[in-house]
Write a structure and sequence with these properties.
Length: about 100
């Protein structure tokens, strides 16, 4: 399975990594109305990236968990690659 170093902007990605940090959730207003968002830092042996967690997904994840992101959407946000779930993506916690 490819690692974080193989992520490319404007493409889907599937990879496994460990959550090394999760930011405090913050309130934002989106085109769909108010929501909460937090950033999880993911790391594997090839690098690190940020995973955007929205709303009810935020409390599901904890630092130290190993997760597989399937069909995550990669975008360039302020010069850094960031992964979100998009329409078809999912996050699976590994045992």
């Amino acid at each position: 399975m490819p690692g974080i170093s193989s992520l490319r902007a404007n493409a889907n990605a599937t990879f496994t990594a460990t959550i090394t940090a999760i930011s405090e959730a913050r309130d934002v207003t989106t085109s769909r109305g108010p929501s909460r968002v937090a950033d999880a830092t993911l790391q594997d042996e090839t690098g690190t990236t940020t995973l955007t967690l929205w709303g009810d997904d935020i409390p599901k994840y904890k630092v130290g968990q190993k997760v597989t992101v399937t069909d995550g959407w990669v975008k360039d946000f302020r010069g850094r690659l960031q992964v979100s779930m998009g329409r078809s993506g999912k996050i699976t916690i590994q045992p």
